[in-house]
Amino acid sequence: MSYSSNDQQTRILYANELGKRVTSGERELVILESLALDVDRGESVAIVGSSGAGKSTLLGLLAGLDAPSSGELEMFGQSLSTLDEDGRAALRAGRVGFVFQNFQLLPTLTAIENVMLPLELSPRQDVAGKSRQCLERVGLGARLDHLPKQLSGGEQQRVAVARAFVTEPDLVFADEPTGNLDEATGKRIIDLLFDLNRESGTTLILVTHDMSLARRCDRCLKLEGGALHEVVQRQGVEA
Amino acid sequence: MNLIALSLKGLRRDLRASDVRALFMALALAVAATTMIGFFLDRLDRGLTRQAGQLLGGDLVLEQGQAFDDGLRQELRQAGLTLSDQVDLVSMVSQGDAFQPAGLKVVDDHYPLYGQVRVDRGDGIEGLAHGPPPGSAWIAPRLAQLLGAEIGDSVQVGSLALTITGLIDREPDQQAGFAGLTPRIMLNVQDLDATGLVRPGSRIEYELLAAGSPAAIDSLDSRLDALREAGVEIRDVRVDRPSLGRSLDRAQKYLSLAGLAAVLLAGVAVAMATRRYVDRHLDTAALLRCFGASQRQLGQLFAWQLAWLGLAAAIVGALLGLAGQAVLLSLLTRFLPLELPAPGGMPWLMGVLTALAVLVGFAGPTLLRLKRVSALKVLRRELDPIPASGWLVVAFASLVFGALLWLYSGDLVLSAGLLLGGLVALIVLWGIGQLLLNLLLAVLARLPQRGLSSRAWQLGGRQLARRRQASLGQLLAFSLTFAAMAIIALVRGDLLTTWQAQLPTDTPNYFAINIQPQERDGVESLIDSAADSGSGLYPMVRGRLTAIDGEPPRQQVPADHQTDGALRRDLNLTWRAALPEGNRITAGEWFDAGTDTASDGAVPISVEEELAGRLGLSLGDELTFTIGSDSITGRITSLRHLDWESFQPNFFIIFPPGALDDFGHSYITSFHLAEGDNDMLATMVQRYPGVSVLNVEALLEQVRGILGQVTRAIEFVLGFVLLAGISVLYAALTASRPARAHEGALLRVFGAGNRTLARMQWAEFALLGFASGLLGAALAETAALGIYGWLGLEPRMHWLMLIVMPVLGAGVVGGIGFLLSRGTRRQAPMESLRLLGET
Ligand SMILES: Nc1ncnc2c1ncn2[C@@H]1O[C@H](COP(=O)(O)OP(=O)(O)OP(=O)(O)O)[C@@H](O)[C@H]1O
Ligand SMILES: [Mg+2]
Question: In angstroms, rounded to a whole number, what is the distance separating the alpha carbons of residues B46 and B40?
């Protein structure tokens, strides 16, 4: 580990020369190539890009949910490539929240049980109370005991969001967190994320198509041709 | 839309899916089990009938005091029977100065119809499929000893001199009974006239032996009745099968039971796999609805797909079954004639029928969901058609299983009882399962959360309890699986123990009969000096039943037993103070010494229960026996069960001591003599020439041999059922793997490490296995109560099982589950989720 700079304290995520290739059948598909990224603690970063550009793939890599084909990757100052699957999980435990593009709720568990699950992995008090609070904050206080099947797409998405921040993580990855929501509900979720960002310094990495969400982030990056490019913020962003 | 082509295409794509494989395997297993056991029982039954025929000398034996006429012969031949004539008589034979009474057995060229005569013609014992040629005689070694004759000597039979060319070791039909107990001499029918023994007034028995298929004999039934009326004594293989009956009957029932257990196991696997199959196809079904498929078309599409699957499974299963029965038979052939009839068509039919029934019964109601799916489901997941009510599925499957049960056992009461009991048991199990899950949650909530491992255990338990419906389903399925496995294993153990207890090593292998009262003490001390064990001496009086309650027996006996042997022959009567060993009172009371006459002076008697059943006798009936020129009447005060396979002297009727004092009697006994201890026998024959000693070692050996072979067949079938059970567990766990993998991958995302995941999954499976083992043991114990009665075994508790089964269950389910979930623990979460089709 290098102590050459005070990066150690401010940098939370670092990627360099990151590549991801997959072989489907006989053909090799390059999804990401020579990608670089540097995110500081407390920052909020939006990643945009066309469908199939590799946004979800990148998010998974950054969170350590998948292994890159090449390049370096650090989270919380730890190189992920030196860690095995187990080590990466341990690094995430309680500190990383993840909202999947397709929610990934367990179909046999109720909304609140889904939210409780990450809390139950570590010794904590009042697991149920915390989970209920989180669901109330996303507007689902009345749907605690419903199964995912009984919820609409947007409601399921909100359960997924609640599950991501119930552990009060340092770093939240969210793949299209407002993709299924109407404007008002979408705004409520966005507010929630940024409140968290402000109050507890939670770092946000968001994949989105929603420009109003992208605009509220500190930085907006576009994924194109397997690499990230800084998007020049339009006028009025600061306003 | 060409549904058949579409269904085949769909099935081909599906072949990689674990649920389709599980379905296929379970169906093939059910068919394999039923055809294997079906083929085997079918051929075993026919083989045993053949062997029984051998012991009788033919499938049908007619006997009378004069020669049979050619008209009857013609009739029997036309019915498809092969005939052999035999003449039995007792006469003096001599060699030099030695004279001995001997039992002549005069045989023709067709003798023996079944089996072989084992005879020593000077170069060791060999098996021959014919009798002695004209001019020669084969004699029993004992007769040779008595006469002081050897092979090559000549023996005088009546006015004919024959050359002794062989010593008889064993006749295939020697166990015909105790009649003609004088030592044997066998000669050819062509020499009979020359002996000059056939004279008016000589006591000669003519026997007409016939061999043929049961159908051929069936066709003669009315003719046989007429012959019986005319005084012909008839032994019929369909009725007079040897007393092995009981044990083999149990073995056959056991095998049927095992087949049913296998079907039940397969049904459970089918039900489990179908759930996953349907879940997986709901989206396809909804999409097809979007594209305009009608409910009917959807129903047909999936019905076709499963029909193909069922057909393929039936063929593979039937082939496996055929191979399996060949293995089973190869375990038995040493004791069965080799030219067993070819496998019949029935088992094939039953196999396919079973596959269909299992498919329709255990998968049908669940499959209906696919048909009812709505197109909107593509848009909204919550529109899953209501899952078929669990109870509907269970009720329908039970009904089908009950029908199968009835079909196989042919016992409606038993099937209905088992079915009803099973349903009640399921409801109770379901309730207990709910209770257990609630209990689990409550306990987990109270436990302190300390350390990683206890947390993992708690999480596993909590997940199990939360997946309530799925867990309950698995709990029921696994309990049933364990119960089926346990029953088959338990019954096997108790069956074998019973058999071993039945024929201990010192089971009598000799009978001595015709012991006169004045010889009694001498014979008894002689036997005591050399034998390992003995039954003691029983007095024996021969008497004929001539009246029941003062009326001729025929007026009292049920119509279908008018010609019962017990009415036509003398019965062996005895007297005795104590209940003979191995007998059990089933009704009334054994007479006490001292109160051996009732207040009104009637003599109390004890009657064997099966005879009483046949003749319609009950307690209080008065039986009159004619003994010589006198008669005696006794009143039935008890019915007895006795073990005909015990190789002890057994009596239908027992009087109290003193009651038969006025009648002439002799004694009978049985004893065990170690092999090669012939001195004592020689002494006995010399000192008491009137006493007949009968060697039943061969019969004993045969019974032991058959039981031994059947035991191996049973072990084989047990192994099969256990394997079937394990594969059901495996299939069920495979079917639930995706859901668990999903959960595992997510927990990984939340930061759960390998050890946590492994412990958690192990905990979940072990808890499930433990509870299933416990419930399964309880279920097996309950079911055993009924099943043991059906098998005629004493019910008993198996306490150890209640401890062993849960532990075993936890080990087996935990082990399989742990192995199956290993893959997901190794994969990166993104990869797992993508493979599950969830990203
Ligand atoms: N394991 C894999 N095997 C084959 N192809 C893959 C794999 N993972 C990703 N891809 C492909 O890589 C591309 C990028 O996928 P990804 O899901 O990251 O896109 P995305 O930017 O999130 O798109 P969207 O905005 O539609 O969600 C897609 O074309 C996808 O099919
Ligand atoms: Mg995506």
Answer: 10
